[in-house]
Amino acid sequence: MSTTSPEQGATAPAPADLAPPTAPDRPSARRPEPAPAPRIRRILAHTVLEARILLSNGEQLLVAIALPAMVLIGLRLLPIGRLEGAQPIETALAATLGTALISTSFTSQAIQTGFDRRNGVLRWVATTPLGRDGYLAGKILATLLVHVVQVLVLGLLAVILGWRPNLLELLAVVPVWLLGTIAFGSLGLLVAGLLRTEAVLAVSNLVFVILVAAGGIAFPTSSYPRLLHSLVDLLPSGALGELLRACLAGGDVTGGSIIVLVLWAAGGSLAVARWFRWTSV
Questions:
Q1: Which of 199, 43, 59 is nearest to 118 (CA)?
Q2: Rounded distance, CA 116 to CA 141, Å?
Q3: Closest alpha carbon to 111 in 242, 171, 119, 36
Q4: DSSP assignments along 99-166, one per residue
Q5: What is the pLDDT of residues 79-136, one digit of tens each?
């Protein structure tokens, strides 16, 4: 007969059995993943960055502001590049604005984009929320922003030299300016996207000098010999120069110049979409 009492024979409960029941597992709260800023905000931020780069670089300022200002002063004081019946300051301002547009839209754009391409910036941008389209949109808006600064500075200088602006003339210049920006901006991107950086520097500066000096910007196309006259009329610089002089100096706006500039703008844009390379070779 066992002498063990029921109390002595009972097994002590395990510590785990004494623990209070746990609440059922709850899904842990997850922090929302950071989302990119809205598209328009990304593009505007890139626009400000691009414009700051252009306006803070001494060499770019020389090409964008100082050189066109020297063109304005030189053409204002020298009896060249004038239209019959027009004031010297009006034809000088037309040539100056054409120089400023080409310097920023073509030369500066080509050089800056060429260096971005060589340094791998374009390849990196393609993987960011900004994307390729946002990068190009920011560049275009930055170029237009720099153009506004150029027009204000050069326009003030022209007023000091005797120019009296007319509102209708200024309104007529706006579509010509936008069309010229597209034409020369696309050509600048095409040069930057096809050539090596060293070649971009040489080609963009050489083409800039040729277009301004002999491409219908500094001098009206009518002042060239007949053979060269026909050739210059087909250049985007020749069409831009004729249209700017027509708007500011009271010349005749020819449909041929408008068609030529439209074709260069459309053709340049299509060429960039087809052949622009985002990585260096």
A1: 199
A2: 17
A3: 119
A4: HHHHIIIIIIHHHHHHHHHHTTHHHHHTTSTTHHHHHHHHHHHHHHHHHHHHHHHHHHHHHHTT----
A5: 665 665 556 888 899 999 999 999 999 999 999 899 888 888 888 887 888 888 888 8
